[in-house]
Amino acid sequence: MSRSPLILLIILLSVLSVAACRQDANRGRVPGGVQEVVTTVGDDIAQERYEKIYNEASELWKRDVTLERSTEVFKTLQTKLGKVSSRSLNSATEQQNSGGPLKGHVFILTYETSFERGDGMENFTLIEENGRWALARYFVNSTALK
């Protein structure tokens, strides 16, 4: 009889461990709609469709930058880094924010990216607006940009 509480404790800890592992496994998953936006934006950058990126971006993006400035930044990235050769997901973070500039349902995706003229890290921040995912921020960090 004295072993029953110990066995129950071991079973409870096992169940909690499995549940924790499942949460970690789901953390790295990227929903299809989010991945589709990243793929589309990547294709649009490669094809120099900067106005399309701007027009399909979130209201947050448009509030932070003009079409002209957005286009200028993408052209600079293209000139200094070239096209993407490969992109590998480094991290995916899902957030549900109740305040701040990124209010609402957000995904932040970080990729290890090889460009034609250097390597870097790409960061895509997507926000759900009116039932669809939209680009809120895009950032590239690379020594080739210096």
Describe the structure.
There is one protein chain. The protein is α+β, with helices and mostly antiparallel strands and 146 residues long. The protein folds into two domains: 1-28; 31-145, NTF2-like, domain 1 (Nuclear Transport Factor 2, Chain: A). Helices cover 47% and strands 33% of the residues. The chain is built from five helices and four strands, in the order αααααββββ. The chain has helices spanning 3-27, 32-46, 50-56, 59-64, 67-81; strands at residues 84-97, 104-115, 118-129, 132-141. Strands 1-2-3-4 form a four-stranded antiparallel β-sheet. α3 (50-56) packs across α5. The longest helix has 25 residues, at 3-27. The radius of gyration is 20 Å and the shape is globular. The N and C termini lie far apart (70 Å). The model is unreliable at 12-27 (pLDDT under 50).
Give descriptors for this structure.
146 residues, alpha+beta, Nuclear Transport Factor 2, Chain: A, 2 domains, 4 strands
In short:
With 146 residues, this protein is an alpha+beta fold. It has helices spanning 3-27, 32-46, 50-56, 59-64, 67-81; strands at residues 84-97, 104-115, 118-129, 132-141.
